[in-house]
Amino acid sequence: MAIWAIGDLQGCLESFQRLLDRIKFDDRNDTLWLTGDLVNRGPDSLGTLRLAYQLSPRIVTVLGNHDLHLLAVAANQGAGLRRGDTLEDILGAPDRDELLAWLSSRPLFHHDPVLRTALVHAGLPAEWTIAEAQRYGAEVSAAIASDGQDFYAQMYGNDPDRWSVALSRTERLRFTVNCLTRLRMVDSSGRALFKFKLHPRLAPAQSVPWFSVPTRRSRRTRVIFGHWSTLGYYEDDSVVGLDTGCVWGRELTAYRLDQPAQTVAEPGPPNKDTGPPMDEG
Question: Could you tell me how far CA 261 lies from the centroid of its own chain?
C-alpha cells in the first residue's frame, strides 16, 4: 500500500491521469493526498473534480483558495466569476450538486499522527500548534456546513493579517482561511503578506517564508503544502512544497509519503505563460 501526495491539479485532468499511471496508483490499496486547488485555470476542471470524487474512498484532500472560490460562486448563483476562471462547466453540470456537496465537506487541514505528517493547501501561522491548526480549520469547516452563503460573503479580504486570540469569530474565520489557503510570506513582526505571490528571493526585506519562521510551533511535524507555484518543489525546514506549476505548463509532482523520499513528475498542459498571473494564484 503506497501513500502519495500530489500538488495542485487546477483542472489538469490529463496530467493527473498520466501521473497516476506513472506511480502505478492502485485505487483498491493506495492512498492519495491532494494539496487542494483541484479546479480552476486548467483545461478540464469538471473532469478533474469528477475523477477526484470517483477516487474519494482513497483520497485525502484539503480545500484550496480556488476550491473555496468555486463554492462561493456556486452559492452566489454564479456571480463573482473572474477573468480566467474555468468553472462554468462545473456550475452547469448535471451532477454539480453532488460534486459541490462532496467538495464543501473536505477539510482545510489534515494530520496523520502515524506518519507524523500534515496536509494544508498554503501554510500555517507560526503561533499555531498542529492541534490548533486542526481546531481552527475545523471551525471553518463547521461554518461552511452551517452558515453557507453568509460565510462565503464574509470570507474575502486580507484583514486581519496577524494572529491574536482576541480576534472576533468572523475575523478568526477569515484569518484561518487566508493562512491555510493563501499564506506564503510573513514579515519580521509576524504579519502575513497575503498579497505576495513571487519567489522568496523577490520578497520584501526582513520577510521570510511561513515555514522558515524560527519560532514556528508546528516544526516537529512534516507539513505537505501546495499553492506556491513560483517557489516550485521545495523540501526543507520539515516541509515539502508540491505546487510545481502544472497549470502554467510546468509539472505535476507526486511525493511518496510512506517510505524514503521519492518524487515523480509529469509535464503539464502547454501554456505560453511562464508563471501565474497576479491574482489568487
Answer: 21
In this structure, what are the phi and psi dihedrals at residue 211, rounded to the nearest 5 degrees?
Answer: -80, -10
User: What does the pLDDT look like over 164-209, one tens digit per residue?
Assistant: 999 999 999 999 999 999 999 999 999 999 999 999 999 999 999 9
- What is the Cα–Cα distance from 176 to 162, expressed in whole angstroms? 10
pTM: 0.95
**From the candidate CATH numbers 2.40.50.100, 3.60.21.10, 3.30.70.1520, 3.40.50.620, the one assigned to the domain spanning 3-267:** 3.60.21.10
The closest of 26, 152, 3, 151 to 78, measured between CA atoms, is 152
- Position 215, amino acid: T
Distance CA(120)–CA(116), nearest Å, equals: 14
Instruction: Tell me the sheet residues that pair with 6.
Output: 34, 254
pLDDT digits (tens, 9 = 90+) for 236-255: 989 999 999 999 999 999 99
- Domain positions in the chain: 3-267
- 19 vs 48, 52, 123, 244, CA distance in Å? 13, 14, 25, 13
CB 5 within 8 A of CB 119: yes
CA distances 94 to 87, 98, 100, 141, 186, Å, are 14, 9, 11, 25, 42
Buried b (16+ CB within 10 A) or exposed e, 195-219: ebbeebeebeeebebbbbbeebbbb
Tell how strand 117-120 and strand 109-112 pair up: antiparallel
Length of the chain: 281
Cell match 507526486: residue?
Answer: 254
**Residue 209, strand partner residues:** 185
